[in-house]
Specification:
The protein is mainly α. It has 3 helices and no strands.
Amino acid sequence: MDEFKKLFLLLKDYLEAQKDNMALAAAESMTVMLSAVAIGFIFILLASVLLLLLSFALAHVVAEYSNSAALGFASQAVLVAVIGLIVWIRRNAWITQPIARMMVHIFIERRNAEKEERK
């Protein structure tokens, strides 16, 4: 009877250690995911500022050649709208699928690599 009690306590300790290991693995995966989101946000913010500045520069060039500031800025508004429409149409291939692949890589492939290391 005493051996069963020791075995039960060892099993309990093992399950608690596995639970802690899973929590640490989840925390690591969430850290990697959140850092990727933060880097993506910073990249999108910088790309937006770059697009805005290039758009102003091109609007001034068009305004200089057409002698109409309104035409220069309107042409850039149309250009940005067309770019936005293209991104909206291709959002699945350009945004959704890469994010899904990143999530699979973070959660599944890292876990498989950890399993291989244990063997």
